[in-house]
Amino acid sequence: MPRTHAARSFAEIVRRTIRVGRTITTSSPSRFAIVVFSALILITTALLSLPVASADHRVTPLADALFTAMSTICVTGLATVDMATHWSGFGRAVIFAGVNIGGLGVLTLASIMGLVISKRLGLRAKLIAAGDTNPMRAHGGPVNESQTVRLGEVGSLLRTVAISAFAIEAGIMVLLLPAFLLDGMDPLTALWEAPFYAAMAFTNTGFTPNPGGLAPYASNYYVLTVLMLGVFLGSLGFPVIYTLARHRWHLRRWSLHAKLTMITTLLLFVAGAAVFLLLEFDNPKTFGSMDAADTTFQAFFLSGQTRSGGFSVIDVGSMNGSSLLVGSMLMFVGGGSASTAGGIKVTTLAVLALAVISEAKGRPAVQAFGRRIPSDVQRVALSVVAWGATVVAVATIAICQITKYDAVDVLFDVVSAFGTVGLSTGVTERLPDPATYVLAATIFMGRVGTVTLAAAVAATSRTQLYSLPVERPIVG
């Protein structure tokens, strides 16, 4: 009897666990994302902790294994150990696989697998996929259908995600392979490093498999241009790639999201290069020793990498404090929505800028390209910026208190973690374990996304069926 009772109790616990797990994974795409991302990070941490994962066959400390796993799954590129020398072939293979999984997005990847197996998507899978490819789908409240991906288009969108990701990475690999071979690299090494660099570029991660990183290619404009192109395509976002695949150069048919993403991305790219050129042209440790052509190219390369790429040719720690602040601003913005980039996203910045312009002109609504942007989108944009700034501020204060490092250097690395960029002033490699865990949590918050977290919390909120009296506080 005691055994029968124990068996029934165990079976009941299993049923309850399954029921709770099913509720978490099906009630909200955002909650499902958090659960799956957490599970993947724990699995990757366990794999990287194995002796076979390190080059010296020793167990990697938990703080380093967890941080590397977090940086891998969240496609960040920051590291507390030397990526080129610490990990074995097995460890690098784990990192390569984790970067690709994280870059595609767990929800999108799961939907693609379901599409391949069943050849069609059910309603629930379509809703989940729509929630991942369009953050507004995960936000509570009504969504303007002109700004969303319709359910009938989700199947085509997922095929575009899979095909575009594979095609872009394969294309980057094909472009890089001859350059590596002509540079004298061993063919077997080139066959490994070319796809590795391709994945790191498209997923906007920035890990480098060779000692010295991009230093051997600092003057190789061809390699740097190919990597910059891969970073640019990865940071656009799958909805924009989907729009470009369908309408190509028919600009009038582009969605408002695609237009805002492309325009804001190009403006930040050019403006960032101009500012870096102005601030660093006389710095002998960065651009000061280069001629005009090299300086201009490296300024554009740095501008693109601070948005999300994470590759670095110059020593970031040697940049002027003013340049580090500008880089922090660019990293905080990040790339496009539903992309491999992090940050608050360029469309968030565009919506807030349009709101300011509309308010200055006295317009009753925010408008762009003949379309009206609803107020709920503006509220989400404000929430994203406020939440992101709060995360960055708290993490910066905590790490500064733990380490007593220079605040500008710490801020740069914290914003790099939140924006899942991967550039570092050298602070990350010197962090003690408590500060390492704080920075790892910042990476997770940046990758999961402020909108996703807000949606997970908002899913439990109740609708208010009454209106309170109006009173206007003094603002400004």
Please characterize this protein's 3D structure.
The structure is a single chain. A hairpin with a 2-residue loop joins strand 1 and strand 2. This protein has helices at 2-27, 29-49, 62-73, 89-104, 106-118, 123-133, 151-182, 187-202, 221-236, 238-247, 256-280, 292-309, 321-333, 346-360, 375-403, 407-418, 433-448, 450-458, and strands at residues 366-368, 371-373. It has a two-stranded antiparallel ribbon with strand order 1-2. With 476 residues, it is mainly α. The chain has one domain (27-456). It is found in: Cell membrane. Keywords: Cell membrane, Ion transport, Membrane, Transmembrane, Transmembrane helix, Transport.
What topology emerges from the helices and strands here?
Elements: H1 2-27, H2 29-49, H3 62-73, H4 89-104, H5 106-118, H6 123-133, H7 151-182, H8 187-202, H9 221-236, H10 238-247, H11 256-280, H12 292-309, H13 321-333, H14 346-360, E1 366-368, E2 371-373, H15 375-403, H16 407-418, H17 433-448, H18 450-458
Antiparallel strand pairs: 1-2
Pfam families: TrkH (PF02386)
Transmembrane segments: 32-50, 93-117, 160-182, 221-244, 256-279, 329-358, 379-399, 437-459
InterPro entries: Cat_transpt
Question: For the largest beta sheet, what order do the strands appear in spatially?
Answer: 1-2
**Count of alpha/pi helices:** 18
Largest sheet: 2 strands, antiparallel
Strand content: under 5%
Instruction: Report the uncertain regions.
Output: 115-119, 135-149
Q: Would you tell me the overall average pLDDT?
A: 82
Helix content: 55-70%
Category by helix and strand content = mainly alpha
InterPro entries: Cat_transpt
Subcellular location: Cell membrane
Keywords: Cell membrane, Ion transport, Membrane, Transmembrane, Transmembrane helix, Transport
Organism: Microbacterium capsulatum
